Amino acid sequence: MSWNDERVELLKKMWGEGQSASQIAKELGGVTRNAVIGKVHRLGLSNRNGSGGTATTAGAASDTKAKAAPEAKTKAKPTAPKPAPKPAPKPEAAVEAPPAPAPVSRIKAIIPAGQPLPPQPSANEIDPAALAKVSEVEKKAKRLTLMELTERTCKWPVGDPATPDFWFCGLPVQSGKPYCEAHVGVAFQPMSSRRDRKR
DNA sequence: CCCTGATTCGC
DNA sequence: GCGAATCAGG
């Protein structure tokens, strides 16, 4: 496979959207993420400029890569303000809210085979987008049983534990979190809507 | 271990 | 120019 115009464009597009190299490679097919990264660099669009903030959805592993540039990098673009096209019309990647000083991110999420299941879409009002994502993801869920869960499978429970069709998502977890990306989205909602319940 | 991007260097 | 191997980090 070679880099057609189309392929390069798709690469640019996806990279611009913040997609990870591996995702792009998967989409393109016939290339590895290394190839994608290499191409990205050759094209000179390595830094994903961002003015608005944290728009990284499925990847932002490394960022503090100031590193020690051994040689003088020949990256000259002094007069290239770049309008920083950040359209991102995709409503898909916008589930996280920055202002969350709440230290609520310490759920042990062990799921003690019983009742204390912290999350669970009930009478809650969560981000519609996040919920949509979840229900979409649940189609692809692995439907694991409790025993099949591992450290890197999403432990999001689906269904009623007192019912034969109760299973866990089982998709690959985000990173150290107990859930896959979609479920992390609804599990760790940093409070936004419905903040004051009746009291 | 999973993942991420960055760099190097033979091709 | 290309990308596997390697590196460096989360």
Automatic annotation (TrEMBL):
Query: According to the UniProt entry, which residue ranges have a biased composition of type Pro residues?
Result: 80-90
Region described as Disordered: spans on this chain: 43-102
Which Pfam families has this protein been placed in? GcrA (PF07750)
Q: Which InterPro entries match?
A: GcrA
Could you tell me where the Basic and acidic residues compositional bias lies?
Answer: 64-74
Start-end of Low complexity biased regions: 54-63
This one is known as: GcrA cell cycle regulator
